[in-house]
Specification:
This protein has about 375 residues and is mostly beta strands. About 10% of the residues lie in helices and about 40% in strands. Strands 3, 4, 6, 7 and 8 form a five-stranded antiparallel β-sheet that branches. A five-stranded mixed β-sheet has the order 13-14-10-9-18, with no helix packed on it. Strand 1 and strand 2 form a beta hairpin.
Length: about 375
């Protein structure tokens, strides 16, 4: 029996099949470098393309770039065709990056082929003891108009210490120093920054550094998002309209640069508990600036207060404003009616008692009976 043979194929077809076969491996990028341009946490990462990568028609070469600060659980991911990126890190910790080559297209039958990872790390030289770093660093973006940051000196702070706050965000050519410090006993313990509208909705790098004679102090690095630190002023023009059955509350958004559509409000009421301390109860959390409350179960409402903050459509979080409060005293209709009826009922009751007493007296009186002459006359 003749052996089984495959039909002969043209040489050109064999060449096409061979050229379209998927590569089994892809070479990784080379020479991953991390450098610090002095932007308080934004580092430049660059690499070179693979040394030997086949040239395929209709096939795309790109890179998967992942980065994180040491201690973070998750990696942040960027897909790019570029060979250089600028990304943010916490400079108080080591920066970690990794890059791999991705190849996909007709040359791989549209199956993505990945190279091995190439890793690199970067650590800013740490100076001073950790206890010398400033404490309780806290910032609030007031009315979306100015940023106020405060801190306290570190535990190991020598006399004559001088603190400086530096900041950078995308759009600035270099890091800038605070121009308006808040002082306490001659020491900088805070900073006020204005004209930050360009920094909204992006990372803002902050560094608070300290210097003292013959002592190294640990700098503090942090990254802020202004919209998550916003605190509006209290709502304006709180107006209450009270009827027998309803209470209507209306107010206006605060002034300043706060976008009205970015605000939500909380409304609370307090009942007069007959001499006891009034307890505030939440009635509503909403984005409208009016609210109608039924007074069916609020017989002694005495105060209403409203406050606002940035809503979830404009920020992940935010600070509540101060309260706008108004108090009033209105009796219910039933109480008014009862107050009027009490004197009437008392008058009728007294009159009825008097008539009853008169009737009793008449029954006991000898009037109407014949008078008899005394015996012996």
């Amino acid at each position: 029996m003749a052996p089984c043979r495959l039909p002969a194929l043209p040489v050109a077809l064999l060449w096409v099949l061979a050229s379209s076969s998927s590569p089994s491996t892809v070479v990784a990028p080379r020479d991953v470098q991390i450098s610090d341009p002095g932007l308080l946490g934004s580092l430049d990462v660059e690499w070179k393309p693979p040394a030997h990568i086949p040239t395929f028609n209709e096939c795309t070469v790109k890179y998967k770039f992942e980065y994180r600060s040491a201690g973070d659980r998750d990696w942040k991911v960027i897909f790019t065709r570029r060979l250089k990126l600028r990304v943010g890190f916490d400079l108080s910790r080591s920066a970690e990056v990794r890059v791999q080559t991705l190849l996909k297209g007709r040359c791989t039958d549209d199956v993505e082929v990945q190279s091995d990872w190439v890793h690199s790390t970067f650590q800013t030289p740490q100076q001073g003891k950790l206890e010398s770093e400033v404490q309780n660093f806290h910032c609030i973006y007031h009315d979306w108009e100015y940023l106020k940051c405060t801190w306290q000196p570190g535990l190991l702070t020598p006399r004559g210490v001088h603190y400086g706050l530096y900041y950078w965000y995308q759009g600035l050519e270099q890091a800038l120093q605070c121009g308006h410090y808040i002082q306490e006993r001659g020491i900088n313990v805070g900073c006020v920054l204005q004209n930050l509208s360009q920094a909204e909705y992006q990372d803002m790098n902050i560094c608070v550094n300290g210097s003292a004679a013959a002592t190294l102090l640990r700098p503090l690095y942090t990254t802020l998002r202004l919209h998550n630190l916003a605190q509006p002023s209290a709502p304006a023009q709180l107006v209450l309209s009270v009827s027998v059955s309803e209470l209507r509350v209306a107010w206006s958004p605060p002034g300043g640069r706060v976008p009205p559509h970015c605000l939500e409000y909380e409304v609370q009421v307090a009942e007069d508990a007959g001499g006891a301390a009034a307890a505030w109860a939440i009635v509503s959390t909403q984005m409208e600036t009016t609210l109608t409350i039924s007074r069916a179960n609020l017989s002694h409402v005495s105060c209403v207060r409203v406050r606002g903050r940035t809503n979830i459509f404009c920020a992940d979080q935010g600070f509540w404003s101060e309260w706008t409060q108004d108090c009033f005293s209105v009796s219910r209709k039933e109480d008014k009616q009862l107050f009027i009826l009490i004197p009437v009922i008392l008058s009728l009751s007294v009159s009825l008692i008097i008539f009853m007493l008169i009737g009793q007296c008449k029954k006991r009186s000898p009037a109407g009976k014949p008078l008899h002459a005394p015996v012996g006359y």
